[in-house]
Specification:
The structure holds two protein chains of two kinds. By secondary structure, chain A is of the alpha/beta class. In chain A, 35% of the residues lie in helices and 17% in strands. Chain A has one domain: Aldolase class I (TIM Barrel). In chain A, a hairpin with a 2-residue loop joins strand 4 and strand 5. In chain A, helix 6 packs parallel to helix 7 and helix 9 crosses helix 11. The longest helix of chain A has 19 residues. The model of chain A has no long low-confidence stretch (mean pLDDT 94). Chain B is an alpha/beta fold. In chain B, helix 3 runs parallel beside helix 5. The N terminus and C terminus of chain B are likely disordered. The chains are: A alpha/beta, B alpha/beta. Chains A and B meet through helix 1, strand 4, strand 5, helix 10 and helix 11 of A and strand 7 and strand 13 of B.
Chain lengths: 329, 315
C-alpha cells in the first residue's frame, strides 16, 4: 500500500447554528451592545444590512428608563491595540425606544437581544416589564423566540447603579432574580471584569435564574491628554476594549466556564476567526464582536463565513470546540 | 474636541463601492463582507510642507459632496481604527486627502507609498449645503484653519464644475481666507489655489488671502484677524478648523448682521457611521449631535444659542 493516500474528501462545513435559551441563532457571532447602530448603518451604507444582518442576533445599544445625554466629550480615544470610551449610556429612553426604534428592529430577520441598564433594581424591572409588554403587543405569544433581554450590570462609565450592582454578588442575584420574575424570555447577565472574582458574580446570576452569562464588558481605565497631562476623557475614566483586552477576557470566560453551567456569550477584542476559536475553546457558545465593527461593519458576517471552514479544517464541530481548552492537554 | 491622536477633520466619505475584482488595482485585497469598506490603492503621496497630500484610487467610488469625509485606514496598519478625513479633492475614482501627521494614524497615512493598500469607508456625513452657500446675494467666504483647509479644494472645484455646466445658482464671489501656523503648514494651500484658478476660469471671482501666525507668509495674524478685516454683512461662510477656531469665528460673525455660517467640525471618531456615539457635540438646544451622522457640517444657529451668535439666519 502506498504511503501516499489520496487526500481525504473535504469534510462538509459543520453546522454552526447554536441554541441560546429559546433563541435559535444561525451562527455564533453576535454584536456587543453599543457597537453597532444597525439602523444608522442601513441609512449610511445601504438597506441590505437590515435584510441580511452581519450578526445572528442583534444587540442594540443599552436602553435606559429615561433619556440620557451621556458623558461630556471627549468620549473616545484609540490606544495601542484598543479603544477607550466613556459614552455613559446615552440614549433615547424606554418610551421612545419602544415607540420608534424597536418597531424597526423587529423587522430584522434575526432575533434581538435587548440590552437594558438601570440605576436601581426597580429600573431593571420596569425596563423588563415595559419591553415584555411591547414585544407581546407586537409579536403575540411567540415573542420569546424572537427577543431576549441582556442586563447590563457592568457599564463602567456611569456613577451609580449598573456596574455597582454587577460588582456585588448579592445585588446581582437580587436584580437578576427580580427581572427573572417578570421576564419569561432569554435572560442574559452581562458581567464586568472589574471585580475580584468574576466567577462569584456569574454563579450569583445563574442561581438567580439567568439563562446565559455575557462576559466581558470593558475594563475600566484612564488615558492622559498628551498635551495637558490631564485625564483626556470627559468622564475622567473610561472602558478599554479591543484586541488589547482579549487575553484578559479569555481568562474571564475560562473561569466562568468552570463555574457556571449556563451558556456563555464571550467577548473582548475579537477581530479574527482565530479569536472566535479562542473564545469558543475557553467556553463561549456565542461570541460577540465589538470595537472591531467600528472599522469593519461587516466583521460579523466575515467571521461567521470563516468559522465553518476553520472548524472543518480542524475536524471540530461547535459541540466539540466549546470548552475544548478545558480538557487535559 | 480635537483628539490628541490626530483624528483629523471629520469631513469626507467613501461609499460602499464595489471593488477588488480580479485584475483591478486592489485585487490583492479581499472585498469586505457586504462591500461595506472598499479597498483602495495609493497612487501618490507627497508632502505639502508639514502636511501631506495623499491620493488614492477607490474603484467604484460613488463621489463625495464637498464637506463629506471617509474613514481611512491602511490595510497594513498599527492602528485599530480608521481616521476621519475630509475628501479634499476627487477626480473620478481618485480622491485626495490633506493630512496633518500629528498622531500614530495620520503619520502612518502620510508615510504610505504608491501601491500601498487602504480601506475606505464612505463617503460619510452631510457635507456643505452648496445650494444655500451659492444662492442669493452675498459672497461665499471659505474660512480654513490649518488642516481645516482640507474640504475647500473640492468645494471650489464643485462650484466651478456646476458653473461651467450652465446657469445654475452661483455665488457672486468666493473669498478664500486661510490661516496657518507657519509657512511650512501654509503649503497646504496649494490645492486650493489650483481649484480657485479653475473657479476663476469658470467666471467666478475668487480672491484669497493666506495669513500665518508667525508671519512667514502673509500677515502675522490668526485667521480670525483676517476675517475681521474682510467680513461684510450678508456673507455666507463655510468654515473648517479646530474647535477653538470655530468658537472664535462664531464670535466674529456674531457682530456682523446677516452673516450665515456653516461649520464643518473636527472630532475624534471610532466608527464614522453613528454607531459609537463617541464624536458628539452639544447643540444650542441642549441635545447632543453626532458629528459623523448629523454633521460634520452644522449651522451656527444649531451650535450656538441666539445670544451667543447674533448673526442668525434671518438677515
Amino acid at each position: 500500500m502506498s504511503i501516499l493516500q489520496p487526500p481525504p474528501a473535504p469534510s462538509p462545513a459543520p453546522d454552526i447554528s447554536v441554541q441560546l435559551g429559546p433563541l435559535r441563532l444561525a451562527h455564533p457571532i453576535v454584536n456587543a451592545s453599543g457597537t453597532m447602530e444597525i439602523i444608522d448603518l442601513a441609512e449610511v451604507l445601504g438597506p441590505d444590512i437590515i435584510q441580511d444582518p452581519p450578526v445572528s442576533a442583534y444587540v442594540p445599544k443599552t436602553i435606559t428608563v429615561d433619556a440620557r445625554s451621556g458623558n461630556p466629550a471627549p468620549r473616545i480615544l484609540e490606544t495601542p491595540g484598543g479603544l477607550m470610551n466613556a459614552i455613559g449610556l446615552s440614549g433615547e429612553g424606554l418610551e421612545a425606544f419602544v415607540a420608534g426604534r424597536l418597531q424597526r428592529l423587529l423587522e430584522l430577520p434575526c432575533p434581538l437581544i435587548l440590552s437594558v441598564g438601570g440605576f436601581s433594581l426597580e429600573e431593571y424591572v420596569a425596563l423588563a416589564t415595559g419591553l415584555r409588554a411591547a414585544l407581546a403587543a407586537a409579536l403575540g405569544d411567540g415573542w420569546t423566540a424572537k427577543a431576549g433581554l441582556e442586563l447590563n450590570i457592568s457599564c463602567p462609565n456611569v456613577h451609580s447603579g449598573c456596574v455597582s450592582i454587577g460588582s456585588s454578588a448579592g445585588e446581582t442575584e437580587a436584580v437578576v432574580g427580580a427581572v427573572r420574575a417578570v421576564w419569561p424570555g432569554l435572560l442574559v447577565a452581562k458581567l464586568t471584569p472589574n471585580v475580584t472574582d468574576i466567577s462569584e458574580i456569574g454563579r450569583a446570576a445563574e442561581s438567580a435564574g439567568a439563562d446565559a452569562i455575557a462576559a466581558v464588558n470593558t475594563f475600566k481605565g484612564l488615558v492622559i491628554d498628551r498635551r495637558t497631562l490631564k485625564p483626556y476623557l470627559g468622564n475622567i475614566t473610561g472602558g478599554l476594549s479591543g484586541p488589547a483586552i482579549k487575553p484578559l477576557a479569555l481568562r474571564a470566560v475560562y473561569e466562568l466556564y468552570e463555574s457556571v453551567a449556563v451558556p456563555i456569550i464571550g467577548m473582548g477584542g475579537v477581530v479574527t476567526v482565530q479569536d472566535v476559536l479562542d473564545f469558543l475553546a475557553c467556553g463561549s457558545r456565542v461570541v460577540a464582536v465589538g470595537s472591531a465593527a467600528f472599522s469593519e461593519p461587516g466583521v460579523g458576517a466575515r467571521l461567521a463565513g470563516q468559522l465553518g471552514e476553520a472548524l472543518g479544517a480542524r475536524r471540530l464541530t461547535m459541540e466539540s470546540v466549546v470548552g475544548i481548552a478545558h480538557t487535559a492537554r | 474636541m480635537t483628539a490628541p491622536e490626530p483624528a483629523a477633520q471629520p469631513p469626507a466619505g467613501g461609499g460602499a463601492s464595489q471593488a477588488g475584482a480580479p485584475g483591478a488595482p486592489c485585487a490583492g485585497v479581499t472585498q469586505d463582507a457586504f462591500g461595506r469598506r472598499s479597498p483602495a490603492i495609493v497612487t501618490a503621496n507627497r508632502p505639502l510642507g508639514s502636511l501631506g497630500w495623499l491620493t488614492v484610487q477607490v474603484p467604484g467610488w460613488p463621489g463625495a459632496k464637498p464637506g463629506q469625509f471617509v474613514m481611512l485606514q491602511a490595510v497594513d496598519s498599527c492602528c485599530f481604527l480608521g481616521r476621519p478625513l475630509s475628501v479634499a479633492q476627487q477626480d473620478g475614482d481618485t480622491i485626495s486627502f490633506l493630512i496633518a501627521p500629528v498622531g500614530t494614524g495620520t503619520r502612518k497615512l502620510c508615510g504610505l507609498r504608491r501601491g500601498d493598500l487602504l480601506w475606505v469607508l464612505g463617503p460619510l456625513g452631510n457635507g456643505f449645503d452648496l445650494e444655500a452657500l451659492s444662492t442669493g446675494p452675498g459672497r461665499l467666504v471659505a474660512v480654513g484653519g490649518g488642516v481645516g483647509a482640507a474640504p475647500f479644494p473640492l468645494l471650489l472645484s464643485t462650484l466651478a464644475a456646476s458653473a461651467a455646466e450652465g446657469p445654475t445658482a452661483r455665488p457672486e464671489e468666493v473669498l478664500i481666507l486661510l490661516g496657518f501656523r507657519d509657512g511650512s503648514q501654509a503649503a497646504g494651500a496649494g490645492p486650493i489655489a489650483e481649484a480657485a484658478a479653475a473657479l476663476e476660469a469658470a467666471g467666478i471671482s475668487c480672491p484669497g488671502e493666506v495669513v500665518t501666525e508667525d508671519g512667514s507668509i502673509g500677515r502675522p495674524e490668526r485667521i480670525t484677524d483676517a476675517l475681521w478685516r474682510h467680513l461684510l454683512p450678508g456673507d455666507k461662510l463655510a468654515v473648517c478648523g479646530p474647535s477653538a477656531m470655530t468658537q472664535a469665528v462664531a464670535k466674529v460673525c456674531a457682530s456682523m448682521p446677516g452673516v450665515r455660517v456653516w461649520f464643518s467640525l473636527e472630532a475624534g471618531m471610532a466608527c464614522g457611521v453613528g454607531s459609537c456615539h463617541g464624536c458628539v457635540v452639544p447643540l444650542a438646544d441642549g441635545t447632543n449631535a453626532r458629528v459623523c451622522r448629523e454633521g460634520p457640517v452644522f449651522t451656527a444657529e444649531s451650535l450656538f444659542a441666539r445670544g451667543a451668535f447674533g448673526g442668525g439666519g434671518e438677515a
